[in-house]
Amino acid sequence: MIAELGHYALILALGLALIQSCIPILGARTQDPALMSVAGPSALAQFGFVAVAFAALTTCYVISDFTVANVFENSHSAMPLLYKITSVWGNHEGSMLLWVLILSLFGALVARFGSNLPMTLRANVLAVQSWIATAFYLFILITSNPFLRLPQAPAEGRDLNPILQDIGLAIHPPFLYLGYVGFSITFSFAIAALLEGRIDAAWARWVRPWTLAAWVFLTLGIAMGSYWAYYELGWGGWWFWDPVENASFMPWLAGTALLHSAVVMEKRNALKVWTILLAILAFSLSLMGTFLVRSGVLTSVHAFANDPTRGVFILVILATFIGGALALYAWRAPMLKQGGLFAPISREGALIFNNLFLTTACATIFIGTLYPLALETLTGTKISVGAPFFNMTFVPLFIPLLVVVPFGPMLAWKRGDLLGVAQRLLGALAVAVIAIAVTFTIAGQGSLFAAFAIGLAFYVMVGALTDLAERTNLFREPATSSFTRARGLPRSVWGTALAHFGLGVALLGVVCETKWGEERIAAMKPGQTVSISGYDITFDGIVRLDGPNYQELRGKFTVRSGGVVFEIMEPSKRSFPSRETSTTEAALMTRKLSQVYISLGDPSSDGSIAVRIYHKPLVLLIWLGAVVMALGGALSFSDRRLRVGAPKPASAKTALQPAE
Length: 660
Description:
Elements lengths: L1 H29 L2 H4 L2 H24 L6 H6 L6 H6 L5 H22 L5 H25 L23 H30 L4 H32 L10 H26 L3 H23 L13 H25 L14 H33 L7 H18 L13 H7 L1 H18 L4 H25 L6 H10 L2 H26 L1 E7 L4 E4 L2 E12 L4 E11 L2 E6 L2 E5 L4 E5 L1 E5 L2 E10 L5 E8 L3 H18 L23
Antiparallel strand pairs: 1-10, 2-3, 3-4, 4-5, 4-6, 6-7, 8-9, 9-10
Helix pairs in contact: 1-3, 1-7, 3-6, 6-7, 6-8, 7-8, 7-12, 8-9, 8-10, 8-11, 9-10, 9-20, 10-11, 10-13, 11-12, 13-14, 16-17, 17-19, 19-20
């Protein structure tokens, strides 16, 4: 009965979504408060029913109810409880249920905390959100029902994909979906504003917290996924320009541009057309990522290869929402009156520069990801667009963006003093020059570009600190006065500085790991030693162990430096009989912010085993930087000014007028 309860709850959620998608928007059109008030309770009830459905599926996994086809295909009675729970979203059907759970959650949050929104806007937002929910409820119920029963109950399940039996799966997908699906609210706000005809600074103030929350979760989700791939796949890399990785990175770039554009719209009532477009594109790219993962057009460790019927259904959803949104935008955009004027050298100008390079970078990734798929579909020709293409196109676009990052927060609104800001950033420039000189001196002539990139990273980090120092008059006033000023700064200022600082930290890690990482590949027998970056790594032997649902081949390596034992490392290979597959479990030794990484290959008949050994200097800075960026976003989100409605500007009555 548990599975049937979940199925019926999902059907009831669909019924509520249909009501919520029609009645509130009708009330907004007729200015009927009673009809508009339906949106809030129906959104809360819809979330409740989806939560019941998700809890029902989770219960089926926990009790190993193999009469449910989804549980049979993706679980095993011997799996640890944690992996039984994470198996819920480790497959297509369950992950789509998580998708709609988060979608309904955001609608419920707007219903619960959106009391400061105008009634018509709130009704329209929740109605649009319910349009999206309705489409995906139908998708799940028609093509991807997770509650289907088997005619006969199997004695045992087929087990979860072994690659996904990892603690990273417990964290990465929910955070990634909170980011992916979180942009649905910004999309709903954009469509609601276009329908209502009110697009002004107040709208930007209302939409920013939701955008910021989605961006923070997506940042953490991408970082966690990167680290999971780094240690779980055994390849030793942290980013592969995989099409599905790109599918999450593109909404992140669009969301970052949207955050900065919304600031201009809020402060200067400008960039309305552009901000609305970014709000549409951010979620559209999330939908595209959903299509890539679930249509079967990609072969990836991230992808759910499914039958074409599901891909066609999602393609229809894409065409409906993306096409419909862009058509509405094309109709309404010419009517939007532009906001205040500003000089090119201003904070607005810097933010536009930011948007230009972020969206161009997003476009290059979009082309590099989809062009091979489109070419194969149209001509049958298969081509590979890999890391060299993305590195050659993405890196040149990001360098000028990083150069401008410290300038933006220090320029004045409307008209800025470029020379004055440059003078205040001389300290950051001096630190960058010193970093370049030191790096070049130590590393030699072959490290010119790496030295420049390290200097750029320090320039971004010190530039973020310089902004805080300027705002607090640090070293120009007594320490107590500076401390008082620092306490009085808005949290959004601290958050911006922290996010920019984290960007520099991540860049530093990327450069050091990419340029100075070392790799050794060897066939080792017990007693043999391999040296790498000052470490002597001795292979001591292999033991065979049994896990709950796998057999394990575990190696033992002793790591020494200068004759002193640092650590015993134990990488392994696991074989899962029920799935007839194996995984590689890398061993990591962390020293400060660097790591030694060992992964096992296949054993040979002569008693040796293939081993990959890496030394990755400062590699942890990559993920530390991402976490710092997310913390900066969370700190900005905690600023109460971002959670209250902006006063109506004087020009609100004429927000929609023919462009002049």
